[in-house]
């Protein structure tokens, strides 16, 4: 019986991601459903929350049947970049850096408008609903922003891309201007968190 190693599992996962061009599903992407958008009740807050829970809790993947497309997630792409950089540190395979740079170029195109948000920031590629609030597609958040910034910073330092390092550091402006209060950090900008 063949033993499966962590390296085997990692390679299998990376190969699958490459096949899918780093696009996939997210536990919270149910509101991207083309069926949901056509339902007259889709604007109802409670129904939206229940719809997301249906996708999260179903033992089968309903997304292909209910029109939720696979898509790239900026946070997910950032995590793949960080993984590619870890692998590069071990193997020194130049193709890993090339792939990470291609993904980073995509991330740069996905950032939120800096004129609105006063700093580099990123959000999710789908609307999602929580009990307390609704978050529209693309609204920046601290989690996605921090992972993307970390990936761009590490890659920029490794490849000498000062523009990526500088972009990553500008995320601090977004966090300081929109998410920090005197005693805590918020996941979403307070002024727009109830939109």
UniProtKB/TrEMBL annotation:
Q: InterPro entries, from UniProt? A: 6-hairpin_glycosidase_sf (IPR008928)
The Gene Ontology biological process annotation of the record reads: carbohydrate metabolic process
Q: What is this protein called?
A: Uncharacterized protein
Write down the species: Vibrio anguillarum
């Amino acid at each position: 019986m063949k033993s499966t190693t962590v390296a085997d599992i990692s390679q299998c996962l990376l190969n699958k991601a490459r096949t899918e061009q780093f696009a996939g599903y997210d536990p919270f992407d149910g509101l991207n459903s083309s069926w949901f958008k056509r339902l007259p009740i889709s604007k109802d807050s409670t129904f939206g929350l229940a719809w997301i829970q249906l996708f999260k809790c179903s033992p089968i993947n309903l997304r292909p049947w209910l029109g939720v497309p696979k898509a790239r997630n900026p946070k997910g792409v950032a995590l793949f970049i960080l993984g590619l950089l870890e692998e590069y540190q071990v193997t020194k395979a130049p193709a890993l850096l090339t792939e990470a740079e291609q993904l980073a170029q995509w991330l740069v195109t996905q950032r939120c408008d800096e004129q609105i948000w006063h700093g580099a920031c990123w959000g999710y590629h789908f609307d999602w609903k929580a009990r307390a609030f609704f978050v529209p597609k693309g609204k920046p958040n601290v989690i996605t922003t921090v992972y993307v910034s970390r990936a761009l910073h590490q890659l920029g330092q490794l490849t000498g891309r000062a523009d990526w390092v500088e972009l990553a550091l500008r995320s601090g402006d977004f966090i300081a201007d929109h998410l920090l209060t005197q005693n805590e950090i918020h996941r979403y900008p307070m002024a727009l968190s109830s939109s």
